[in-house]
Predict the structure.
Amino acid sequence: MVARGAERGEALAAELGERAHFLAGDVGEPATAGRAVALAVERFGALDVLVNNAGIDHTAALESAPLGPVRQVFDVNFFGALQLMQAAAAVMLDRGGAIVNLTSRLASIGVPTMSLYAASKGALLALTRGAAVEWAGRGVRVNAVAPGLTETPLAREWIAAMEDPEAWRREVEATIPQGRLGSAEEVAAAVAYLASEEAGHVTGASLAIDGGYTAA
């Protein structure tokens, strides 16, 4: 597990036990990817699965968005994933493995003030499909999971910051055909499926976990 928050990451690794190891690092920094893959190989003898789940949000009017924060979004959401994929490829190609990239419902639709975040996730989706085709003959599957609005601590903080949180939640849930936000467990189950041998003939796919939002 790789994240910037050392205290939370180390606590989670301790909770999970000896099967888990934590590396404090920013995936937007190029050196982090090599360190993460090296640690996995050192501790487990190989790298079988890479899940690119790190991401940062961004909202801004497109016409006036400063480029500094936009570059930071791409550094984490796109280049961070790319760097980890390249580092993983060094030990996965011709041996086999699975890569799952977390994109977003916004990789497929347009939402005001979310264009730049969506662009970073759309780029990651395009990279997923390209890598899937390029690496298919070398034993590495590459897929994406595209969550919609999901019940996470960040989402709850976001909702709580609204002027009328309950009314805002009802308004958002009304846009989702299933009438509710997703759960982190539902997203994790999709990731686990794509990483497993049960998905052995699945590559280049994007699995939407959004309650039907992008199908409506």
